[in-house]
Amino acid sequence: MPAPRAILTGTAVALFVVLATAAGVRQLINGPIQLFGDHLRRIDTTEKIVALTFDDGPIPPNTLRMLDLLDRHQIKATFFMMGRNVERWPDVAREVLARGHEVGNHSYSHPRLVFMRPSRVREEIERTDALLRGVGVTGDIYFSPPHGAKLVVLPYVLVKMQKIAIYSYTDPKEWKRPSADVMVERVLLQVRPGAVVGFHDVLGGETLVAVDRVVTTLKAEGYRFEKISNFVERVFPNR
Q1: Domains contained in the chain, number
Q2: 216/138 same-domain check
Q3: Average pLDDT per run of 10 along the chain, which is 239 residues long?
Q4: Domain hosting residue 25, numbered range
Q5: Catalytic residue list
Q6: Burial classification of residue 74, based on how many CB atoms lie within 10 Å of its CB (0-12 exposed, 13-18 middle, 19 or more buried)
Q7: Residues 1 and 101 grouped into a single domain
Q8: Are residues 26 and 61 in the same domain?
Q9: How many Å apart are CA 223 and CA 47, to the nearest integer?
Q10: Cα separation of 201 and 66, whole Å?
Q11: Pair (109, 162) in one structural domain
């Protein structure tokens, strides 16, 4: 019979392996690595350019307020929209397009797509694509995964659909509802030339203030703002 100390040691090792494996899986799901398929969170450049993106809209009045802010700064962004919100507020989605911004797909209902069946994942994407086409979106429709979550199934579906996954390089952690000061500090510490800078237009309030200050600061530092399609053209010129 093994000694009690040996049993405890073996249990501790097994527990460590399980925890390490779980941590590794979490990192693959939520971290900066996508196992396969075309994806983009930052382009390799020293040029002072960033792509400003917004997730979860369109929702009035906050999406419209963000559009007004972008108009004041005379910059264009990419809005990754949820299908159910496009379905409910198609006129707001059309307004985003009318003001010269780009629109992408952020799934229909914003689920975690990590452990869903491929057919269910594809339905979330295709349903939203159809709604976006209905409000006037043309050309390629890029996809921003809800929660930034991915593993195997989502990349597999995106490869089959010939779609590029877009992730934010910066993370202001808006879901924690921090102050504008905190969000600005986080983003400015993380931002690099070629980064995708992501926010959520639907939140309004502190996010609106934070975006204003981040854009003002980056412009003062000599940064220019491009749409995601411009970044894609640089990285995947033959698509």
Answers
A1: 2
A2: yes
A3: 49 39 52 82 97 98 98 98 98 98 97 92 98 97 89 92 96 94 98 98 96 98 98 90
A4: 1-30
A5: 55, 200
A6: exposed
A7: no
A8: no
A9: 8
A10: 6
A11: yes
